[in-house]
Amino acid sequence: MRVNFTVNGRPQEADDVWEGESLLYVLRERMGLPGSKNACEQGECGSCTVRLDGVPVCSCLVAAGQVQGRDVVTVEGLAEFAQQRAEGGCASGACGTAGAAGTTLDEARRWQAKGADSQTGEGVELAPIQQAFIDAGAVQCGFCTPGLLVAADEMLERNPNPSDADIREALSGNLCRCTGYEKIMDAVRLAAARQSEGV
Amino acid sequence: MTTANGAPTKITQGSKSKGGIGESTLRPDGTLKVTGEFAYSSDMWHEDMLWGQILRSTVAHAEIVSIDVSEALAMAGVYAVLTYDDLPAEMKHYGLEIQDTPVLAHGKVRHHGEPVAIVAADHPETARRAAAKIKVDYKELPVITDEASATAPDAILVHENRDDHHIGHVPHPNIVHRQPIIRGNADEAAKKADFVVKGEYYFGMQDQAFLGPESGLAVPEEDGGVHLYVATQWLHSDLKQIAPVLGLPEDKVRMTLAGVGGAFGGREDLSMQIHACLLALRTGKPVKIVYNRFESFFGHVHRHPARLFYEHGATKDGKLTHLKCRIVLDGGAYASASPAVVGNASSLAVGPYVVDDVDIEAIALYSNNPPCGAMRGFGAVQACFAYEAQMDKLADEVGMDRVEFRRLNAMEQGTLMPTGQPVDSPAPVAELLRRIKAMPLPPERQWESSEGSDVRQLPGGLSNTTHGEGVVRGVGYAVGIKNVGFSEGFDDYSTAKVRMETVGGEPVATVHTAMAEVGQGGVTVHAQIARTELGVAQVTIHPADTQVGSAGSTSASRQTYVTGGAVKNACELVRERVLEIGRRKFGSYHPAWATAELLLEGGKVVTDGGEVLADLADVLEDGAVEIEAEWRHRPTEPFDLRTGQGNGHVQYSFAAHRAVVEVDTELGLVKVVELACAQDVGKALNPLSVIGQIQGGTTQGLGIAIMEEIIVDPVTAKVRNPSFTDYLLPTILDTPTIPVDVLELADDHAPYGLRGIGEAPTLSSTPAVLAAIRNATGLELPRTPVRPEHLTGKA
């Protein structure tokens, strides 16, 4: 089966996809985007969270065929996505309808995963939530991090001023085994505060 | 052969600030991890790679009558199907201490999920389907599931022909190891007791549940060897077990650490390493194996479930008189780390208390239950659960405050352990208890605010099961003691290679160790140590591999102490060499080169008075200084096999917790409202990471208190809940705020005075939560985890 969809604003085509393959498998193994993680592959841990037409989903539970013609944002595209949102553009996927997302084909073609320069955020374009996770110490092994970032970014988009209970509710589908969640709470609070201060 | 995609590269971290020890510098891999660029072992990819799949036993204990692989082998896309008969070398077993684990089952399976055959195919689903086509005919045997069935007169031996070094002193061949600790005379001392408290406790089987599944990529090399990229806790221990089974010398098995998604003890034993290498060598193609979560539950050892029998006595003024205890750990089908877990459970069975007269015995069973081994806390966790329950009961009997009772009996520096070993560094047990008790309590009816009541703050949460009716608060305390580093005479060393050179006019240090960074932040700390010792801003962390000497295991709270110590030591040797070069070049220009204490700071050679003598760039010019050296902590001794006496441990780590819970007594639902921790860390090399470790460890302790347990069917010995749907982990909703009070009392024997910190918070968290639930409900609750039925009386 052939599946056409956009990933991080860039049109993608996957060939020879098996009927049972998940979106997660296609992203990781066919598109070279392993940022979405495979911790449980049964929709319990949230490590594979991506946005499908703006909605956070466990990509392990989405059959690849279901994404035909739709927009997917993964952690690899999160910085770009957040930047477009901050610039007032309707970032790809956030507006709900495929193709109407404001990313021109030309822009999409220019998109590429940014090679990190390994300077702890210095010199790398990061989404505010990504920078906050680094600064707050919310990253240990980091396996839960991509899914949490996508989920937390989406929550802050909806609710820029969340209470602690709101944060916990929004992130309750994302397991973390290292941190005890306290630094993740700190990171989300920090990102929200920076957002409201316009930092 | 093209290179493996996702192979780790050097990470260079510059820093605008000094970035040395004591600062909360940020992780060098942080950017990679938040952008999705960090390559974990399951992300590895290679052109033409195949996928490996393991066929595991569907029964716990059986003879294998026959295995038919013909149908699997005939499937399109299948490249190899291997069973025991295909193993290439004389050596067909492996194991951390005892090589009792077959690479693939031979004639018999001893636990549910044991590897029987392996498949390589061009798509993971093809590999799975091929494995399902392998026909294995099992003739089931009776299962051994507990001490009674293991030691019954007619018990089948789990391992028929044991020749390991424990067989001579165990009372039964189905007992892996037994360690008594006898000191003073417990029977005599018991006569002085005004109160005697006996208890029997049960600690459930916990899973490490690291999120990154067991995985890796084996790439065959042109010299007939193999390069394995894998997530593990100890590369060199893996290497020592892998090479003999492949029939290769160790230098033909290259190992590189791929990104590790958590470990917590579950990666100490081998999982897919040998299987991937066997398939790669057989097919001549790179082979990747990635467990799914179901398989992960079968693919690594778990925390030993334990039955603990405790008898304490106390005088009427509250002094402990004696301890008699027996700890029965279920090691499951293979030995794994069971002997060392027994050593810990017995030697730490008293807890952080002064008890002169003890009679302790710990054993680990061989059974047909899942193999158990290392998990954060390693034998000390189970004991802490029991002795802390005992302390509460004793305090109540004596009529003392529970915290004051503990403080009265708390050990301190100079106390003798029950092994006769003096505690020769600070042991601030009473102080930690004082601090934890002094912390302000969260407000009563915390779910209510001026805006009304928030159901999310109540037991049951969004299930909306109560608005406060039937909800009772409880508060509980606990404290624990954990050993740091490998004990009992183990040669627990680490190696570090440090290079210093000038790049673009700036001095740069490169740190190369084989330390497994599993998330704990060892790489952050290594860079900090190099900055402190060598006065450079930029430090490059070389990927961990077997091209450098062993760094020991990332376990036992030991890496910052031991590999950190090795990095410090190597840096000091490099510094000496650099200063020698400086003296040779510039010594005649300034007398301080010969007379003053010289340091490297800010890229310069300075005197301890702060006078700059030379730029490091001028000292080094185009040359580089590189030194690789091993470093050891003070040696330890084995415990005497009859009395348990001996200087077995090198350092201890202490933490105390206070739990505040709210229990819906009608439904048996528990909300942990706050779980505060006070811990002595000796010296916080990276305070942010220290707090992260304490909060993470605390949460794993919370998990085994109220939700986590691998359920093994008592009749079939099959695992009933191998998934994140049925094995419940604490989510962000289940986890409370975790205030942390960090104490820094230096241990003069350790580098920078630091104390290993990773495990201690996992010990006392569980009994504190249990104590709080007991306090709320008045129930005895002798087992953990506590389930709703235990609280509603419907169990």
From TrEMBL, chain A:
Pfam families named in the record: Fer2 (PF00111), Fer2_2 (PF01799)
Keywords for the protein's UniProt record, in alphabetical order: 2Fe-2S, Iron, Iron-sulfur, Metal-binding, Oxidoreductase
Domain 2Fe-2S ferredoxin-type: 1-78
Database matches in Gene3D superfamilies: 3.10.20.30, [2Fe-2S]-binding domain (1.10.150.120)
Keyword Transport in annotation: no
Alphabetical list of InterPro entries matching this protein: 2Fe-2S-bd, 2Fe-2S-bd_dom_sf, 2Fe-2S_ferredoxin-like_sf, 2Fe-2S_ferredoxin-type, 2Fe2S_fd_BS, Beta-grasp_dom_sf, Diverse_Oxidoreductases
Protein name as catalogued: (2Fe-2S)-binding protein
